[in-house]
Design goal:
Layout: H1 4-8, E1 9-10, H2 18-25, E2 29-38, E3 44-56, E4 61-68, E5 72-81, E6 86-93, E7 98-107, E8 110-116, E9 122-131, E10 134-142, E11 153-162
Length: 163
C-alpha cells in the first residue's frame, strides 16, 4: 500500500497550469503569524500561530494547516477552477467544528475569498501586502437581512512572516 503522505503531497505544480497555481503557490512553505482574533464571546485574543502550505493532489491543489493554539487548528484545500478562473476554498476546523466554502480571486495586488456560511453570514477572507516573505490576512463577516447585508466586521487580522 502506498503511504498517504507521498500520495497526497507533490513537489511542484504541473507545468501546464503552474502560472495560474502561482497565486497561492507562492505561499508554499512554513510561516509564523501574529494574530488578533475576535472570540465567540466578543473578547479580542492576541497570540502567535503557524501556517504550513504545500502542493497536493498531483500539484493541482494547495493544502495548508493553520494553527493558533487553543483557538483553532484547521486546514484549507485550495483548488483552481479554470472555467471560473477562480479557486474553490474549503476550510475545516475540527477543533471548533467550523467549516466554510469560498471562491478566491485576484483583487488588486491581493487575493479575496468570499463565501456564505450555512446560517447566511457572508465571509470575506483576504490576503494583502504580499511579499515573498510576508503577508497580511484579514477575516471579515457580514450579517444582515438584505442581499447586500450590513457592514463588514473584521474578526481576525494576522501578520505572517516566512520561517
Amino acid at each position: 500500500m502506498t503511504d498517504l503522505i507521498s500520495t497526497l503531497f507533490s513537489p511542484a505544480p504541473p507545468p501546464d497550469r503552474a502560472d495560474k497555481l502561482a497565486l497561492y503557490g507562492r505561499f508554499v512553505g512554513d510561516w509564523r503569524f501574529e494574530a488578533e482574533t475576535r472570540l465567540a464571546d466578543g473578547r479580542l485574543h492576541k497570540g502567535v500561530g503557524e501556517i504550513h502550505f504545500g502542493w497536493a493532489l498531483a500539484g493541482r491543489a494547495i493544502i495548508d494547516c493553520w494553527i493558533l493554539p487553543g483557538i483553532f487548528h484547521g486546514t484549507t484545500l485550495r483548488v483552481y477552477d479554470p472555467g471560473l478562473d477562480a479557486w474553490h476554498i474549503i476550510w475545516s476546523d475540527p477543533l471548533r467544528q467550523f467549516y466554510a466554502r469560498q471562491l478566491g480571486r485576484v483583487q488588486g495586488g491581493g487575493i479575496v475569498q468570499e463565501g456564505t456560511l450555512e446560517n447566511g453570514t457572508r465571509t470575506r477572507w483576504s490576503f494583502s501586502d504580499i511579499t515573498p516573505n510576508s503577508f497580511t490576512w484579514s477575516g471579515e463577516i457580514q450579517t444582515g437581512e438584505t442581499s447586500t447585508g450590513g457592514p463588514w466586521q473584521r474578526q481576525s487580522l494576522y501578520h505572517a512572516t516566512r520561517t
